[in-house]
Amino acid sequence: MRKRTKNKIQKSIQMLCVTALLISTVFSIDATAQEAVQDNIAKEYNEYTKCFDAINTLEDIKAQGYEIVEKHVFDIPLVTKSTEVDEDGEFLDTEVTRPIDINIISDEDAVVLQSVPTVRFVTAIDKKYHRAAVFLADKDGTIVYKTNTLECNYTIRGQLEQPIVDMVSVAFADMNHDGLMDIILIAGCVNDSGGYSGQLYKVGEVLFQKKDAISFYRDWRVNDKLNRFGMNKSAKCIISFVRDGNSTEFLYTATTEQELMDNGFRVIEEQSYWRTYEKLGQLKVLPGTFSMADYDIFMIYMVNRQGNIVWSFQPMGDMDNLYSLKGMSGKDMDGDGMKDLVVWAQYSKEGEHGELLVENRCSVYYQRTGGFDTDTDFVENYQFTSGENMEMLLSAIRAYWGWSE
Asked: What is the pTM (predicted TM-score) of this model?
């Protein structure tokens, strides 16, 4: 018996040794593979950096693997000058903070462009890694400033390849009231996978011009807020935030109804009402908008008797503007005996070529024990018709769940 027990122990030890050896071999292989991947990434990044560093003239941009975004090539002034004249008819040499819209040059702007030094502005996207870059060149085509340290190049953190497919918008304005022309960029991105796969979304930023040289700097706090709180919809929207001090941040951080009102939230009174929600108590449904630049941002809040916000909804999704609110309903949709919330509205956004796109969208929020769940199945498959009304929509949702009143 003792001999058998000893043999079993020896075999167990041998098996443990073999297992440990296999595990260490696997870890060794994994470590080697990971090291090879890291080495490859470092090599690719060095090649990318080398190509960018080699760009010294406008002709070098394409030669180094970049595609120039031709629609955003401009001659821009670095300083805005006054168009006021003195008594002799000469233009006064004073700085102003009036932006010049490069896309619509007025007679007044043409005078400004002739009166100050200009540079050629070029945006380009690396064709291999889809990373954007900005170049400024003098009249001879020599690059006087360039940068690839852009917000859009950090859309996917820690990854060399980025999802940039286009530079959607470029604008120029004095954003910090120093008389110097700053740069506004909005990149268009499309992810290959994930929740927004195949959908174009925007990443905006501002490059502030330095005073003592042809150079620019980024303020990551400004860029973070304008992207995190949806203020990257257009150059006008970014200007409204950065230059004029307007912000949508309160829409996402407010904790009380009074805070919403204090910051300019406009309630849509005809759709606001008190209702008892079985798991959440008596709440006021508070839909409304906040206007910023050319956009009406639509939000819905649930407020209790103490005036505190207990839940909020953003039915707009990736759309830019509330076009019209068609209707809202607070009835049980899925047959569980608890009131849900249905929102039907038309929203608009700018298309790839600047055209206005208007869409009908339905949002359904199902009441649960701790709050609301957002519907994804019905809204993705439902097709609106030209003769639609709210009752037809509600009936379709109930039919989806297999019941009717």
From this structure: 0.78
